Inverse folding.
């Protein structure tokens, strides 16, 4: 047996946090060294942070990244380590992995396939490196190999696939396999999305099997730059068999996952495979020989640090809870905010937002320990005096119910019950007099009284907008982060008041649809995440029909009466926006999915969706930043672009109505 201990380290980095990023890298390296790992894979662009955006183009950022790399290099004694950073070659910028061994820089491998879809914009800053090209770079008078390289330490060959490289059909690993690479390292910055872990797991396992190699995958961890959340996936596989999997969505600043691989075993698999066709002569792959001796080690058991929640029958709900809780916790501490403020209306969206803030604190305390959590938030006034997670949550989270004459006891009591259950501070503001003052100003300007018959939307919106200054004031007084509470379904059709319920610095649920959110709240009422349990007080929310509660109570206002059933709205949104179907194509699909609705009523709802979607792009452009959770995101800054001014699908809607009427006559 030829045994080698390898490690995948995940780190929670912050763009341009030079000292913090360096120290977390060094801490991960130290832990890997203490566990006697010889080969360590750290994530893509971990020195700078992945989310630096246009700062990557700064020459000073590039210089500083190289300086930090050189500071770290001496600490790689007895190890072979990958570290990501931006680097230029002949005036062109590349996304590069630096290879260090035994205290020295030994080479640089640029990324060959750039992520330019979805929330990723790598081609804006970087160029892809040509396959098979090897060059040299000079740093401080020393020359280093730079390009499409593999590395030899002892008699082991090591190759790299950098994140997107493994997601394409022509993977670099397939070329590296033809010259007998033993280990492939994949430093990644792959954002969280529902179900994405399973996809990664497949290409790690399949890479290790098809390439007859061991495969080490290390992803970033946490809410790095504001919108994207990284789940900290760490996997080590060999010969199509998973050896080690690290915990996901952790609140730790770094984690190290290790496994012992047997080079002789993967070589045996290669030797007996009829499919393996070596290409030693034709291969363009240059090999860098590294003077590094792999130590003799003892066999070790496989290690799976997967939490119980990973096998839950409600995995999507578990992932949503933990991803958003981690995103909120990181956003709070990285923005140095003094806490959270939520305008708690007694409805589903604001209740979900407040509950997720509470869960962020509970989950962080459970994993880090209560004392360590307090230490990470020690800059917040009153945190050090908290003697329990309940008192800490009360210090961190303020919930405000703001009543007008159209508010009812049902929503007030629901808001109180939820705030009490999650141990938040609860405030009850009466704003009806302020609403009346604004209404009088409007009447003066129009020269007539305002009424619900003639001024419905304006009278609704002024209530929502009047709620904004009070919570902003409280947030300013606390130095806290005001959270807006609008969901993705509302964003699709503009069912939100700008500068009202959209007010805030962060909108944690804007990436999720209302139908799922209601299902999640029901689950939270009765079951809840593994290890944390249910929140029965949510029953007061879940028994209500969703309502903006802005019209007089005798009107019986509900969201679905104003719009359409939420499940239908979300299905139309997926067809029209995610899948880019025309109104007629959407109508055909909805006929099959929702046979319980009348054909003409379906067409009216679809027309309403397309018209509201087109009119309200300007609102989506102004939404507070939100977390990316799936491929149905509507955030125009990172995912779903649409013109603010457009033709509004008039021709396409006319074609749909022609088909509806023709089929009705038939």
């Amino acid at each position: 047996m030829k045994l080698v201990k390898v490690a995948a380290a995940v780190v929670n980095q912050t763009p341009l946090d030079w000292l913090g990023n360096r120290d977390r890298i060094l801490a991960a390296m130290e832990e890997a060294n203490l566990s006697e790992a010889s080969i360590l894979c750290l994530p893509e662009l971990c020195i700078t942070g992945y989310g630096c955006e246009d700062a990557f183009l700064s020459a000073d950022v590039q210089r500083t990244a190289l300086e930090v790399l050189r500071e770290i290099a001496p600490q790689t004694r007895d190890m072979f380590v990958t570290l990501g950073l931006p680097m230029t070659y002949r005036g062109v910028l590349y996304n590069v992995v630096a290879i260090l061994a035994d205290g020295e820089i030994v080479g640089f491998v640029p990324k060959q396939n750039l992520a330019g879809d979805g929330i990723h914009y790598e081609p804006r800053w970087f160029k892809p490196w040509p396959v098979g090209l090897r060059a040299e770079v000079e740093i401080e008078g020393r020359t280093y190999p730079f390009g499409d390289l593999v590395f030899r330490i002892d008699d082991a060959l090591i190759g790299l696939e950098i994140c997107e490289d493994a997601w394409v059909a022509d993977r670099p690993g397939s070329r590296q396999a033809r010259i007998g690479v033993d280990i492939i390292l994949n430093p990644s910055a792959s954002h969280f999305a529902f179900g994405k872990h399973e996809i990664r797991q497949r290409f790690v396992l399949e890479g290790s099997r098809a390439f007859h190699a061991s495969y080490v995958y290390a992803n970033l961890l946490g809410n790095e730059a504001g919108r994207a959340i990284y789940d900290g996936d760490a996997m080590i596989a060999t010969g199509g068999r998973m050896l080690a999997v690290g915990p996901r969505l952790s609140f730790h600043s770094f984690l190290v996952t290790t496994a012992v691989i047997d080079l002789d075993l993967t070589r045996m698999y290669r030797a007996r495979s009829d499919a393996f066709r070596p290409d030693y002569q034709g291969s363009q792959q240059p090999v860098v020989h590294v003077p590094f001796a792999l130590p003799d080690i003892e066999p070790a058991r496989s290690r799976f640090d997967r939490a119980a929640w990973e096998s839950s029958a409600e995995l999507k709900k578990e992932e949503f809870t933990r991803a958003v809780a981690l995103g909120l916790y990181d956003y709070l501490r990285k923005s140095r905010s003094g806490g959270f403020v939520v305008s708690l209306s007694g409805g589903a969206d604001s209740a979900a937002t407040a509950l997720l803030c509470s869960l962020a604190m509970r989950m962080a305390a459970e994993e880090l320990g209560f004392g360590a959590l307090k230490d990470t938030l020690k800059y917040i006034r009153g945190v050090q005096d908290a003697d329990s997670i309940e008192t800490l949550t009360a210090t961190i989270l303020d919930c405000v119910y703001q009543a007008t004459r159209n508010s009812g006891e049902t929503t007030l009591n629901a808001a109180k019950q939820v705030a009490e259950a999650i141990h938040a501070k609860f405030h009850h503001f009466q704003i009806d007099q302020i609403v009346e003052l604004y209404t009088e100003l409007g009447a003066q300007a129009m020269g007539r009284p305002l009424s619900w018959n003639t001024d419905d939307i304006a009278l609704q919106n002024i209530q929502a907008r009047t709620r904004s200054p009070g919570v902003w004031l409280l947030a300013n007084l606390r130095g806290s982060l005001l959270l807006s509470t609008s969901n993705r379904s509302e964003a699709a059709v503009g069912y939100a008041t700008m500068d009202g319920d959209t007010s805030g610095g962060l909108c944690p649920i804007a990436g999720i649809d209302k139908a799922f959110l209601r299902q999640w709240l029901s689950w939270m009422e009765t079951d809840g995440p593994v290890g944390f349990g249910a929140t029965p007080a949510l029953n007061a929310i879940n028994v209500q029909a969703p309502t903006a509660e802005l019209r007089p109570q005798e009107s019986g206002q509900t969201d679905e009466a104003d719009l359409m059933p939420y499940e239908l709205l979300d299905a139309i949104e997926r067809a029209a926006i995610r899948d880019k179907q025309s109104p007629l194509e959407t109508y055909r699909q909805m006929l099959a999915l929702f046979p319980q609705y009348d054909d003409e009523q379906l067409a009216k709802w679809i027309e309403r969706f397309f018209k509201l979607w087109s009119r309200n792009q300007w609102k989506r452009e102004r939404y507070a930043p939100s977390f990316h959770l799936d491929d149905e995101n509507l955030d125009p800054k990172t995912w779903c672009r649409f013109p603010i001014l457009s033709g509004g699908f008039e021709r396409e809607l006319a074609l749909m109505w022609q088909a509806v009427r023709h089929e009705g006559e038939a």
About this structure: The mean pLDDT is 95. The domain at 313-552 is CATH 3.40.50.620 (Rossmann fold). The radius of gyration is 28 Å. The chain has 22 helices and 22 strands.
